[in-house]
Amino acid sequence: MGIKTVIPAAGLGTRFLPATKAMPKEMLPVVDKPAIQYVVEEAVSAGSDDVLVVVGRNKNALANHFDRVTELEHTLERKGDAAKLAKVMEASRLADIHFVRQGDPLGLGHAVLRARRHVGQETFAVLLGDDLIDARDPLLTRMIEASAQKSATVIALMEVDPAQIHLYGCAAVEATDDADLVKVVDLVEKPAAADAPSNLAIIGRYVLKPEIFEVLEETAPGKGGEIQLTDALKALAADESIAGPVYGVIFRGRRYDTGDRLDYLKSNLLLALDRDDLGPDLAAWLKELATGL
Fold it and tell me: Where are the beta strands (DSSP E) in 36-117?
């Protein structure tokens, strides 16, 4: 049985208003699939067949997307449109997908805490929907492997321009014998460039041991009155007696940020350009467009 996966999806998506007034931001299309489907596919490709989505109000569209739509399936079947039928049925066959409400929007740490009963006493993965990881660069598989080898909590890190580190959580680290693996000794939330201990930013992938729930229970609300997952991870890094060490996998592959409007548009273009059915025509059009700018 594979590792369980938790996907927090209770955010209000205010950066994308009014598009997200009645539709969850996780359902915004990236080329021709909603963003959350890429995240579920990533979990499944890493061996996870049990996914818990933590939702807020007005998130019924998420459950509907991963459910069967028999009327649509029958219509496509009658038309003999096998290709579209396969795409429609793909989402409902990906994994065993569950939903739980977050209730009060008290932050990422609180959303993870809502998964406690479902996860139980097992190591589990947390995948945030704002970061899409290219399917050709198996980050989560490497993180699960490192967690098992080190009996550790593992977070994903990515090198960023030091001038941009103030936008991220940042890790203070020690090198290991593996080029892509570091030991995390401290975490600093959105430091000024001059104060940052490194240029390694936390991106939205975590492999967590069940002891994280006890720490989250004791974590006081931080910025914005929310329970911050970073604060709980900082506590684990500072005291290995709680749940063992914290390690970071340094990701050097392809990541698509869908967290704000400009990066979302860039992500759509990059993923479309990579596709055989869209890439050549889109590339030609972009070249033509660029010459006229």
Answer: 50-55, 96-101
